[in-house]
Amino acid sequence: MAAMAAILLMAYLVRGITGFGSGLISVPLLALFLPLQFVVPLILLLDFTASILIGGLHFKRVQWDEIGILIPFGIVGVVLGTSLLVKLPTEPMLLALAAFILVFAVRSMLNLHGDKPASRGWAIPASLTGGTVGALFGTGGPPYVMYLTHRIRDKSDLRATFSALFFTEGLTRIVSFLVAGLLMTAKVWTAYLTALPLVLGALYMGGRVHVGQAQMARLVGVLLLASSVSLLFKALHA
Known about the structure:
The chain is mainly alpha-helical. It contains eleven helices and no strands. Helix content is 78%, strand content 0%.
């Protein structure tokens, strides 16, 4: 319980600062000692709540024209990812998650971010990948983040758009998880209600913290690298 609380506090502090990243940090760390079929639905509910709070506070800044093109293909990805989460065994999923997290750990630590605007055509692979990985691992933010950061330059608009997108995609995942039975357990809802006050406090504190973008990227990168290596070790020795 203490480890779970510390992980959630850290993950949603980052979410409060940047507008994203909670699932990317919390899921691989929680998966070290909890099953993915429990962790992913729990983080989905917490992220959905966070998206309502953060997105609602900056509703007028949301770039709806950018979100509109992402939603249809994201829904297709969510359906595919939910099916894989239900059917695949644990070890291959942990290996895939470790590899996925490692890519973004290196990217964050080296601060590899291009400056060229992205074409609208990249919305299709970004949303398909984001929806699939989001449903499968609860960490579908990076493909969306990479696409939108090359489309929206204003940080406040970008942060609000992230939350609105994650709200919409989260609602789709909730419906998909309900159909698949992943949200029909008392343990998930009990953990959600227990963790909610901690998460709300972390979001509030994160919203009042001002950290340089490069510093935050490197910090997140270190956390992701550690979680990736740990997940790889767990998968190989399961």
